[in-house]
Design goal:
The complex is a heterodimer of chains A (192) and B (133). By secondary structure, chain A is mostly helical. Helix content of chain A is 81%, strand content 0%. Chain A contains six helices and no strands. In chain A, helix 3 runs antiparallel to helix 4 and helix 5 runs antiparallel to helix 6. Chain A is elongated and about 60 Å long. The termini of chain A are far apart. Chain B is mainly alpha-helical and 133 residues long. Chain B is built from four helices and no strands. In chain B, helix 1 runs antiparallel to helix 2 and helix 3 runs antiparallel to helix 4. Chain B is flat. In chain B, 14% of the residues are buried. Classes of the chains: A mainly alpha (192), B mainly alpha (133). The interface between A and B is medium-sized, with 30 and 26 residues.
Chain lengths: 192, 133
């Protein structure tokens, strides 16, 4: 039941991002020269590395979900024995990767502001920061969700389906945010 | 769950030709509509695909069969809170936070603090106290 609700909500989130894409392309169609000038300031290789970090966090998240489905919250072996890791360890890795993504994005923002691209500088700035910024907020929200889920695993004496279900729906959300970023990345950094 | 799956997949099936025709008529150069239609297709696909894989997993439910009986659906459906004050607290905290944006920003900080309390209270309501397990 929880997962059905999550998927329906995520589909509505998809339309939310559709509106942001619509905004981006409307502004782009209105001022093509501005787009040509401003997109030249983007650091594509830097963003590509960041994208790879976010995509890899999706993989670690899924490995954590497999452990949650086995109802195994904590690791059974040593800290470096990845095969014996539980849900908590994989989710901590996911959290760290997600946190790196947001931090690198914040750094990228400061770089762009130094190059004169800001939220209020011109339509391109607005479109860039609103689309990537809303995505960044979603990632930050996902990080909060991961902390709460890890907390639940620690609080529970007996890790059951109640804990596993919430872990699984958070992973749905995380994969969704990841896919949206791939689309955003393709549009903003490659299609321009 | 054939009916539910079909209801959402039909949306995707409808938007696929709409998307292609729109693309051809605008020479694939009008991205606002192209992306909006493609994502509308994604909306149907997402829910439809989820229901499809779930129906593969759970098989035929009593409500999918003509001879299904009400009593066959007895048992645990999920875990639901019988009542909870936390959503109310969270709503109130969010209202205070947004009030701060309109009136004075210092109020927003109070709202953020209350949001954190409400969120943790809600998420851990059935993990602590009498419900600790």
């Amino acid at each position: 039941m929880v997962s059905v609700g999550t998927v329906v909500w995520l589909s509505s989130e998809l339309m939310f991002f559709a509106a942001l894409f619509a905004m981006y392309f409307t502004l782009r169609a209105a001022s093509p020269e501005l787009w040509a000038n401003e997109t030249a300031k983007l650091n594509v290789p830097f963003a590509l590395v960041n994208t790879i970090i976010l995509v890899s966090s999706s993989f670690s998240c899924q490995l954590g979900v497999f452990r949650a489905e086995d109802l195994q919250p904590r690791r059974l072996g040593g800290l470096l024995n990845f095969r014996k890791w539980g849900m908590v360890e994989w989710f901590i890795v996911t959290f760290i990767l997600g946190a790196i993504f947001v931090s690198v994005q914040a750094y990228e923002y400061t770089e762009l502001v130094h190059h004169g691209v800001s939220l209020s500088s011109n339509p391109y700035g607005s479109a860039f920061y609103i689309t990537t910024g809303f995505h960044g907020l979603h990632v930050a929200g996902g990080l909060v969700a991961f902390v709460l889920i890890i907390g639940r695993a620690f609080v529970a004496k007996k890790f059951g389906h109640f804990e596993a279900t919430s872990a699984i729906v958070v992973s749905y959300y995380w994969h969704f945010v990841d896919v949206v970023w791939i689309a955003l990345f393709a549009i903003i950094y490659f299609l321009k | 769950m054939k009916v539910e799956t079909g209801l959402f997949l039909i949306l995707a099936i409808f938007f696929l030709p709409v998307f292609i025709v729109y693309g051809i008529m605008t020479d694939w150069d009008e991205w606002v509509g192209i992306i909006a239609l493609a994502l509308a297709m994604g909306l149907g696909l997402m829910i439809g695909f989820y229901l499809y894989t779930t129906s593969k997993r759970v098989g035929q439910r009593p409500e999918d069969r003509v001879d299904g009986e009400i009593h066959e659906n007895a048992g645990v459906i999920g875990r639901f809170a019988p009542w909870s004050w936390w959503p109310f607290v969270l709503g109130l905290a969010a209202a205070i936070g947004f009030l701060g944006i309109a009136v004075g920003f210092w109020i927003t900080y109070i709202g953020v603090g209350l949001v954190i309390i409400a969120l943790i209270g809600w998420v851990y309501e059935y993990s602590r106290g009498d419900h600790a397990h």
